[in-house]
Design goal:
By secondary structure, the chain is α/β, with parallel strands linked by helices. It contains 13 helices and 17 strands. The strands form four sheets. Strands 12-11-7-10-9-8-17 form a seven-stranded mixed β-sheet.
Length: 397
């Protein structure tokens, strides 16, 4: 069979993670797509971007133009909406105009994931969704069923699965170097500008465990192949409610996991999104795994690089996530596990199109829609626990 030479990609969303809206940077999705296009020079790639407003699209277009100059990559880009309107359904027009073969990357507020993902699947697009797949297990099950029925590839952008720091941990767990697992401790937080500025319009429709902590729920599933048994969660509301955002400042969650060998360990997640703006990184993140033979500790904020410049706060730089590196030709190339996650999805889609892999093969190695049911079920149980002042709730799968 002759390999496909053309490919259409629809990106739904044009915010901070897509193109660095509101920041001096370029986000993660757009640089990753540009770099993939450069490495896929044999393909005719057409990119569409759909957002809610023309203002978002105009800023996206400026970022794309600047990125083209910095990377030397010329990309054929169509944008929606095309008029001076606010149009929450602009992605539907993009779906009507997209040419096959095609895929979608969805980067929108959590509560919009289910409907937009469903529309992309019904349009026949392999789809990558930035976590979570959807806010509830019921919605996730809907999407799994439709993707299976239509024989489409669905992946959740759980990029921590590609972080070499976590891959080292995975190897230590599977080699039994740590012995029997006893407990895992995670701290994960972000600056208060995330809910009060960047995501203010929808922060009250999610919580910090669902939006952020879910990364480390999925990660523990990936590292250990364990299944969650029960969940307890408590939270505090103070700072954000004073800013008219009705959601938790912080959530503490305890998850009991059962390993394939039937042994049990616990995971504690301490998550907040009210860190000071002077924090040395947007995300503060650490993970510890303790077993009967040893312990693994990773400070995933402080990776050994600090930057201290007149007029700026001390900054911890993560060179492993999404970092522009100047190449010998003077052009920039973005590298890191955030980029690798996007590349993996796009390469998988092309491999499927060219019959070089199968959905069943990918289901064993990727954070597919079906695999994301584990973390979705934990979030469901945690939300029930929060509503009932911290009672234990079983995980239903």
């Amino acid at each position: 069979m002759e390999a496909n030479k053309s490919f259409s990609l629809l990106v739904i969303g044009a915010g901070m993670y897509v193109a660095g809206r509101g920041t001096a940077g370029f986000g993660t999705i757009l640089p990753a797509v540009f770099d993939w296009i450069k490495k896929s020079s044999h393909l005719d790639v057409r990119v569409s971007c759909a957002a809610t407003s023309i203002n978002s699209i105009n800023e996206f277009s400026k970022k794309a133009e600047a990125l083209s100059l910095l990377t030397g990559v010329s990309v054929n880009i169509s944008t929606y909406p095309t008029k001076e309107v606010v149009d929450i359904n602009s992605y539907k027009e993009a779906l009507l105009n997209i040419e096959q073969p095609a895929a979608a990357i969805i980067v929108v507020p959590d509560h919009l994931h289910h409907q937009i993902t469903m529309d992309c699947l019904n349009a026949g697009l392999h789809t990558l969704v930035v976590k979570p797949l959807a806010p509830s297990l019921r919605e996730c099950l809907d999407l799994v069923e439709v993707a299976k029925k239509k024989e489409l590839y669905g992946m959740v952008e759980f990029h921590k699965r590609w972080d070499k720091s976590n891959l080292i941990l995975k190897n230590k767990i599977h080699s039994q170097a740590l012995g029997d697992l006893l407990y895992c401790h995670v701290e994960y937080s972000q600056r208060k500008s995330i809910p009060t500025s960047f995501f203010k319009s929808w922060a009250s429709k999610t919580n910090i465990l669902q939006y952020l902590g879910i990364h480390y729920i999925d990660l523990v599933r990936y590292l250990t192949n364990a299944m969650p048994i029960r969940v307890l969660a408590i939270g505090q509301k103070s700072y954000l409610t004073m800013h008219d955002i009705d959601t938790y400042d912080s959530i503490q969650c305890l998850i009991e996991w059962r390993l394939p060998n039937k042994k049990i360990f616990n995971q504690t997640i301490l998550a907040n999104w009210i860190d000071p703006e002077t924090s040395s990184a947007m995300s503060n993140q650490t993970i510890k795994f303790i077993g009967t033979k040893g312990r693994y500790e990773a400070d995933q904020k402080n990776r050994g690089i600090t930057l201290n410049i007149d007029g700026d706060n001390l900054e911890h730089i993560n060179p492993d996530f999404c970092m522009p590196i100047k190449q010998p030709d003077g052009l920039l190339q973005w590298q890191g596990y955030g980029v690798e996650s996007i590349h993996t999805f796009l390469n998988d889609v092309m491999a499927l199109k060219n019959s070089d892999t199968s959905l069943s093969a990918l289901s064993n190695t990727r954070p597919t829609f079906k695999e994301s049911l584990v973390s979705a079920a934990v979030i469901d149980a945690a939300n029930l626990s929060l509503d009932q002042n911290g009672s234990w709730h079983p995980v239903s799968l």
